[in-house]
């Protein structure tokens, strides 16, 4: 086997492989001989078709079949001999395969980039530092109460900010009903920002049984082209006004939140423990994101197009699954929406792998179990979940991959320039939430699509 390599771009290679004609012809003849034993042709007994006739009828097809198999098999032998690392699948095409001449084919493919690791000490990071205060605990308890509030009917007063009203409404544009602006018996919390700007404000002061008409201008960036930037007249009818009632801070609330002994001291201690765990996770997440940003900035190179293409397809499928697009072809989503993020993911993956290889980093067994414990804790039967993972090597490999990534992050953190910055609990958690929503290349986020079923086209 003779191999020659041509560099066609920074990562693309064109490899020409030549195999002796005798080797190729031997395989073609063996295949034709095997076929002749079973071929049935009119005018010939089974197995008695002359080889000349077999070759005339089936020779070209058999040659193409043998050529395809030879290219697939010898390509990987050739790249091993040449110490090449292909990125993605090659494009294989015969150059010459006529009888009596050496078989030759060309393989076009990309190679993995050579990554020279930079100085991690040049990566500057800010580590947010905060302590959970008594005020933070008070605020968290209020949020927990707010999440469990109920609404009680109030027939004796008008609606104020924070009240829930039961409202039916219909919108009109230029005197005609506006499509998608009608709904009946919507339970709407005033001040929630669920509806378009101005709609909820127009219902402040309304009383049960009252009807109101008011104008609201739809935003210029509204999803419905017919309504964007237009003023719509709404006729609304309110059948109920309900006042929010928060649960008392007592043993009943404690039990609902999983604190069994029913004392305020134990409850606050439990809240503190959970908040500190959330704070630690948020700080860790922000540091990890900064490490990823720093590594991406430190190592500038173009990733293989084939790997980016594969990552784009994976992200298309992720989006379809996340938003429940059953029956939707993921490839119908424009690739341009994902390409920049896909390139970043591929680059970071290659950088992390290079760090692992150069510094021989391995995931710690305790770290693997800690991640598994965290995953299992989200289910009602954690031990069953852990047992299931341990029985599924492919799933455990994902846990080990996460542990390995954490080990790389720690490795870089130990060498980076880290400055501590005083923050408060709420700002750190808010920053972590904003990063999760806006940047999904380094951390996954999940969330439900906004519910617009009750409010029609008027919902935000």
Main traits of this protein?
460 residues; alpha+beta; Alpha-Beta Plaits; Trigger factor, domain 2; Chitinase A, domain 3; 3 domains; five-stranded antiparallel beta sheet; 11 helices; elongated
Concise summary:
The chain is α+β, with helices and mostly antiparallel strands and 460 residues long.
Note down, in words, how this protein is organized:
- The chain has about 450 residues and is an alpha+beta fold.
- Helices cover about 45% and strands about 20% of the residues.
- It has three domains: about 1-110, Alpha-Beta Plaits; about 120-130 and about 255-440, Orthogonal Bundle (Trigger factor, domain 2), CATH 1.10.3120; about 150-245, Chitinase A, domain 3.
- The protein has helices spanning about 20-35, 50-80, 135-145, 250-255, 265-300, 305-320, 335-360, 365-375, 380-390, 395-415, 425-440, and strands spanning about 1-5, 10-20, 85-95, 105-110, 125-130, 150-155, 165-175, 175-190, 210-215, 230-245, 415-420.
- Strands 6, 7, 8, 9 and 10 form a five-stranded antiparallel beta sheet that branches. The protein has a four-stranded antiparallel beta sheet with strand order 1-2-4-3.
SSE topology sketch:
Layout: E1 2-7, E2 12-19, H1 21-36, H2 51-81, E3 86-96, E4 103-111, E5 124-129, H3 134-147, E6 150-153, E7 164-173, E8 176-189, E9 211-217, E10 231-245, H4 251-256, H5 264-298, H6 305-322, H7 336-359, H8 365-376, H9 382-390, H10 393-413, E11 417-422, H11 425-438
Parallel strand pairs: 5-11
Antiparallel strand pairs: 1-2, 2-4, 3-4, 6-10, 7-8, 7-10, 9-10
Helix pairs in contact: 1-2, 5-10, 5-11, 6-7, 8-9, 8-10
């Amino acid at each position: 086997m003779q191999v020659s390599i041509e560099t066609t771009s920074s990562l693309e290679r064109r490899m020409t492989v030549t195999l002796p004609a005798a080797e190729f012809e031997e395989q073609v003849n063996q295949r034709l001989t095997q076929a002749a034993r079973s071929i049935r042709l009119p005018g010939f007994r089974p197995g008695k078709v002359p080889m000349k006739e077999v070759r005339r009828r089936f020779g070209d097809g058999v040659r193409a079949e043998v050529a395809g198999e030879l290219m697939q098999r010898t390509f990987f032998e050739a790249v091993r001999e040449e110490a090449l690392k292909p990125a993605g699948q090659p494009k294989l095409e015969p150059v010459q395969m006529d009888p009596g001449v050496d078989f030759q084919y060309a393989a076009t493919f990309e190679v993995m980039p050579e990554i020279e690791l930079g100085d991690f000490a040049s990566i500057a990071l800010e580590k947010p530092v905060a302590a959970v205060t008594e005020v933070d605990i008070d605020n968290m308890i209020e949020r927990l109460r707010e999440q469990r509030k109920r609404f009680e009917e109030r027939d004796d007063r008008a609606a104020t900010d924070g009240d829930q009203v039961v409202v039916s409404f219909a919108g009109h544009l230029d005197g005609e009903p506006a499509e998608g602006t009608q709904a009946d018996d919507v339970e709407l919390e005033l001040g929630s920002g669920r509806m378009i700007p101005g709609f909820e404000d127009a219902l402040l002061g309304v009383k049960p049984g009252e009807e109101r008409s008011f104008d609201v201008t739809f935003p210029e960036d509204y999803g419905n082209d017919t309504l964007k930037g237009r003023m719509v007249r709404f006729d609304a009818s309110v059948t109920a006004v309900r006042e929010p009632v928060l649960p008392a801070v007592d043993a009943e609330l404690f039990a609902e939140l999983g604190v069994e002994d029913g004392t305020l001291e134990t409850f606050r201690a439990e809240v503190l423990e959970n908040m500190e765990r959330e704070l630690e996770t948020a700080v860790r997440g922000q540091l990890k994101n900064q490490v990823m940003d720093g590594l991406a900035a430190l190592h500038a190179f173009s990733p293989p197009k084939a790997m980016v293409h594969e990552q784009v397809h994976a992200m298309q499928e992720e989006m379809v699954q996340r938003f429940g697009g059953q029956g939707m072809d993921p490839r119908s989503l424009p690739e341009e929406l994902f390409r920049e993020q896909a390139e970043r993911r591929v680059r970071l993956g290659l950088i992390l792998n290079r760090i692992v290889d150069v510094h021989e980093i391995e995931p710690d067994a305790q770290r693997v179990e800690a991640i598994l414990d965290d995953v299992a804790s989200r289910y009602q039967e954690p031990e069953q979940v852990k047992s299931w993972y341990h029985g599924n090597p492919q799933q455990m490999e994902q846990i080990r991959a996460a542990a390995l990534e954490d080990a790389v992050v720690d490795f870089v953190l130990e060498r980076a320039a880290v400055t501590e910055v005083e923050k408060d609990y709420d700002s750190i958690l808010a920053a972590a939430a904003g990063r999760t929503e806006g940047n999904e290349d380094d951390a996954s986020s999940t969330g439900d699509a906004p519910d617009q079923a009750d409010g029609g086209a008027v919902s935000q």
